[in-house]
Amino acid sequence: MNPLTEIQNPIPFHLITPGHVESAIDQLLGEASQAIENIAGLTSPRTYENTLAAFDGATEKLDHATTLVRHLEAVATSPELRAAHNAVEPKTTEFYSRIPLHAGLWKAVRSYAETEDAKALTGVRKRHLAKTIDFFRRHGAELDDAGKQRLAEIDVELAQITTKFAENVLDSTNAFEEVFTSEDQLAGLPASAIDAAKASAHAKGVDGWRFTLQAPSYVALITYLDDAAVRRRFYLAYQTRACEGSFDNRALVPRILELRNEKARLLGFRDFADYAVADRMAKTGARAMEFLENLHTRSLASFQQENGQLQTFRRELEGPHAPQLEAWDVAYYSEKERQARYDFDEEQLRPYFPLHRVIDGMFETASRVFGVTVAEAPGVPVWHEDVKHYEIREGGQLLGSFYADWHPRETKRGGAWMDAFVTGEPAVAGRHHVGAICGNLTPPVNGNPALLTHREVETIFHEFGHLLHHCLSRSEVRGFSGTSVAWDFVELPSQIMENWCWERESLDLIARHWQTGDPIPDDLLQKMRRARVYRAANAQMRQLSFGMIDLRLHREYDAARDGDVVDYTRQMLAAFSPAPLPSNHAMILAFTHLFASPVGYGAGYYSYKWAEVLDADAFSLFLEKGIFHQETGVRFRQSILEKGDTAEPDELFRAFRGRDPELTALLERQGLAA
User: Catalytic annotation on 463?
Assistant: First the structure.
């Protein structure tokens, strides 16, 4: 039996091979196609169950298999798996893109909408019908045959070239490394970075200290290494990934933008931003841009002040003739200023954040806030020996299970993310939710546990928030479950979890010295909290720059008029940068959030800031009531986490907070309130 053709519990990861992929996907494409034909060709009276519910489940097995294949290609890639993934992707993309173009299916939905059964719908089922009709219209159901054909062609090409974009970023990241052979070259680096580099070199069978562009290695080097020439070399390598040779994405980005905008215009929208945002909280690209510009205006003075202070600090260290900061100097001198101004070095926190303790404390936090228990459940197949498996329960009921894969590998893409493998049915025994959380965190070294930075701890909590959104979902409509919500709302459950990484009560659960078991000392905690707002305007401007570039590319950029996309984006980024950008700066060519999938965060990067406003305002209620106030936690769970897309996001937020979101809490948290 092909392990990809059925939804199994547990998932048989140990049995899945690249050779299974094409045959499974071909089979499931046939089954899903037949299910759709059955709905379209139904001769008996139409009901919710035989039309909308049947449509909701028609592609479930195919969705599951394609998710597993995409996931494995992201965490355990090989030439064979990549080839298999690339072979099936055009088929699946074309199939999914043709669903809303299926004339018989569209007729079936419209016919059902005219029935008395449909007119009597209420609540979630009424919303399901309305959103299904909108789905068909937004995806071309009312186009003529030529328009439908072109739309399908666009979707297939987008899938192919965005996959190629992601592959180029991964391959170019892996292509760069340096091995230092003298301890003199390591000056400034903390012991944790030195040990990790030594272990990396050993794993490659070489002597010395190996550094790469993978996040734990690169961030440590650019932040702490004294040698500015080496920092410059790594910075330029990182910011010019995927811009030359066989990894070059320079031609792909304009083509992706061109195809997205063609698709949007074909469907009656001004541009891709309006198309992407129409069913989100912002509603239009213009409103999303207005939101970012408002935050930009309120952050600009503090941003300029912070950068002036950093240059002054460098002159305090090196004399009045110290040169202007370069882009590869900013993180280095910022960390030194943080240490000097706040007597705080983030490395001081590492011993208090052993990975196993962070995980246990996070689970205890979830228990106290949301009333669930999370425990390891070993003995199931996994895709790598580092992967752990857990279960989420309430009383005796199994709500969900998930896998955790935290450390970088050369066969694994960068970043951190959550995957949803199975959308369960809470009311049906044995049909629980299944997901995964993945990251690229500092690995264990020299037999010691993995000791994390505080930022990495926030990453774990962030992804766990997404995971809870999936596993605690209680929607009868599969397509409304968990994270299947508006993109500018989806980050609320993840970002709110980061707040528990800053409070003494919760930190005492999360943070214990890996050798002594002591909690973070009060003086260190206070330093950490004071330093939280250090260069907050710069952090804000960085995120705003990504959001504004995203929207301008999808609303305004014209290759014929505006020229090279790298030059175009570099000029815009320069206004948000604390130091001049080098002439070959090309970060846009490795911006996987925007270009590694047909939609992804395209025209949606503003969502991070939008959701940050929501999370700060929502957490202010926990600060008022108590961070472990379970009544508030259960209210958040019932109003947000369980609901998925069963109601409009602003309605869900009001159900929890009692009012619309306000900007004040975010600005106060950042120290930017006027």
Answer: yes
